[in-house]
Amino acid sequence: MPELSGCIILYTRDSSHYPAFRARITALGGTTYHLPLMATVPQPLSAADRTILDSSDTLVFTSAAAVQHLLAQYRLCGQQTIAIGTATAAALPYPPNRCAPPPYNSEALLTDWQPHGARIALIAAPEGRQMLAETLSKNNTVRTIYPYRRTNPSTHYPSALPIPHIITIASQQTLDYLLAIVPQEKRKLLKCRTCIAAISERVAQYAEKQGFHTHIHAEKAGETEQIAAICRWWQTVESNSGATP
């Protein structure tokens, strides 16, 4: 029997990522639905932003979207580049000077990289990577540049959607966007019956704080690892459901 036979998964990343995810889950016997909960909108750089970028010796990119939206408006001029993960590194026009090691998150980067006296521009979305900025600011001059912002492309939770076994969540803000559009009664049901498959341990912990009874997380920040975690969890669920009381 396929690993995910009978499993219903609600996918919340944007449409560009969904077909590949759906194909992988379908091959494993699962069923997917799509509710995009995160989109990015460019924000114009100000003259002050450009001055900060020009005077920085290090640019820290927190996501592939950060790379794409900055480079659409600004030409790199010899700064050292740091990527938070492999997808972010791949979005750069040339390999970064440093990439966070597994599990490709802020904590891993800070363990691997402790600069002192650097002039750092952190390229992020508003409200993103605050811990990273605060930690780097202890020994460096850190300014954050916001070449884009995040929005929720879904205005409501479709009433026809079945209650999924799993909802994939890639960030704390994605979960906030979900909770903002789900009617209260269905929100209670999701928190009790649905497992949050988070991209990281930090996001899984946030899901717990928001009241979700069940949550899992990928060992590394990537969909391959996220799917592996889903498969492990579903096999456990199926084994327990078939156990003799």
From TrEMBL:
- According to the entry, every stretch annotated as the Tetrapyrrole biosynthesis uroporphyrinogen III synthase domain falls at 21-221
Catalyzed chemical reaction(s)? hydroxymethylbilane = uroporphyrinogen III + H2O
One Gene Ontology term of the molecular function aspect? uroporphyrinogen-III synthase activity
Identify the keywords attached in UniProt to this record, alphabetized: Lyase, Porphyrin biosynthesis
UniProt KW Lyase keyword = yes
Enzyme nomenclature, EC number: 4.2.1.75
Could you tell me which pathway this protein works in?
A: Porphyrin-containing compound metabolism; protoporphyrin-IX biosynthesis; coproporphyrinogen-III from 5-aminolevulinate: step 3/4
Query: Which Pfam family, any one of them, does this sequence belong to?
Result: HEM4
> Could you say which enzyme class this protein belongs to?
lyase
What top-level branch of life does the organism fall under? Bacteria
The UniProt entry, under CDD domains, shows: HemD
Q: Does the keyword Lyase apply?
A: yes
Which BP terms in the Gene Ontology apply to this protein? protoporphyrinogen IX biosynthetic process; uroporphyrinogen III biosynthetic process
What family does this belong to? Belongs to the uroporphyrinogen-III synthase family.
What the protein does?
A: Catalyzes cyclization of the linear tetrapyrrole, hydroxymethylbilane, to the macrocyclic uroporphyrinogen III.
The protein, known as? Uroporphyrinogen-III synthase
Q: Give the species.
A: Cardiobacterium valvarum
